[in-house]
Amino acid sequence: MEAWVNKGGYEKGIALSKIYKEFSADFVGDILLVRWDEKLFLDRLFEYVLAREDVDWNPDQASKGDTRRQRRWKIGDGKGGQEDGVKIVSK
Which of these, 40, 49, 41, 52, lies nearest to 71 by C-alpha position? Predict the structure, then answer.
């Protein structure tokens, strides 16, 4: 997670499903993927980002709360093609 967040480039947003796909590609055939499904991974990534003092998760949604659901943000064209996304932004 640290390496992924540190590489940056997510200020404009990325679909959550794409994040998990990138993560799981690094662990193909690894037992880790049996235990770390998409929801668990995203929950832990959210906790990791909020615990860091140098980055934030969907900061434009921060006034709504400090849970992943409260900081939900949609990415896509708005015609049924939207999905949950994240902006990981430097503070």
Answer: 49
